[in-house]
Backbone:
């Protein structure tokens, strides 16, 4: 299926650059009449993972981001030349347990759960020292919800 | 990270004057909150009506803030916007926080049992 529209960006792996990239993707998605909250949530998590883990917060790493609309979904491909995924594959992404006492409440582990929960066709491969993460997020009909 | 305290009769309202609590701002959020609530011993309401986006770092920061409240102080959330609501609901962490429509509603509601 041919994509209707595409978005490409290459930016440094810093939290501030990630924010800017997310702004741009939101603008790109804004041209659809679909709500894109889920897409923004997932993309933020995936990009944060590259910053924090693939590049272990080295600010000179580059991230390539491709996004394209195909029917009622947006597909993404993220590429980086950082460290490979531990164990060479996607983390499982179980939902951290919220039913514990206050002192044991989880402060992390939500990211991969959100990615798994909200995406279709999530896949990871490492090719020639490059991490490639692909996923698709269905867009729901309805009013635009601003990313911020 | 701009957080503005508004002391009220029965609670301290803290308004988050940022659009996002995310990877770029989560640490600063936690640190600023820690200093704002350090002398508190009662009800603290966090007004999130301007926050339109939170990621898992931001969610973790909210949990950390809740866990680290001093003494008998308890934090409650108010004015949750759609994406924040969605992230809380998807992770089921909306069951962990006390959440109000607005700070005003929170103030007129009786303080929830500990």
Residues:
């Amino acid at each position: 299926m041919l994509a209707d529209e595409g978005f490409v960006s290459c930016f440094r792996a810093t939290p501030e650059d990630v924010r800017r990239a997310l702004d741009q993707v939101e603008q790109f998605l804004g041209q659809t009449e679909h709500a894109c909250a889920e897409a923004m949530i997932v993309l933020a998590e995936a990009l944060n993972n590259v910053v924090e883990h693939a590049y272990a917060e080295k600010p000179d790493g580059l991230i390539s981001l491709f996004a394209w609309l195909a029917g009622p979904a947006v597909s993404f491909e993220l590429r980086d030349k950082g460290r490979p995924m531990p164990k060479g594959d996607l983390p499982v992404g179980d939902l951290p347990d919220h039913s514990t006492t206050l002192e044991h409440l989880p402060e992390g582990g939500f990211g991969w759960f959100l990615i798994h929960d909200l995406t279709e066709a999530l896949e990871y491969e490492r090719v020639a020292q490059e991490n490639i993460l692909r996923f698709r997020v269905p867009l729901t009909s309805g009013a635009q919800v601003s990313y911020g | 990270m701009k957080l503005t305290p508004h002391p009220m009769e029965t609670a301290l309202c803290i308004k988050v004057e940022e659009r996002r609590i995310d990877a770029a701002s989560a640490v600063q959020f936690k640190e600023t909150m820690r200093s704002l609530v350090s002398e508190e011993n009662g009800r603290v309401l966090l007004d999130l009506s301007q926050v339109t986006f939170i990621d898992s770092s931001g969610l973790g920061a909210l949990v950390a803030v809740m866990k680290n409240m001093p003494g008998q102080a308890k934090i409650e959330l108010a004015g949750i916007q759609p994406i924040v609501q969605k992230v809380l609901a998807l992770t089921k962490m909306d069951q962990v926080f006390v959440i109000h429509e607005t700070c005003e509603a929170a103030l007129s509601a009786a303080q929830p049992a500990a």
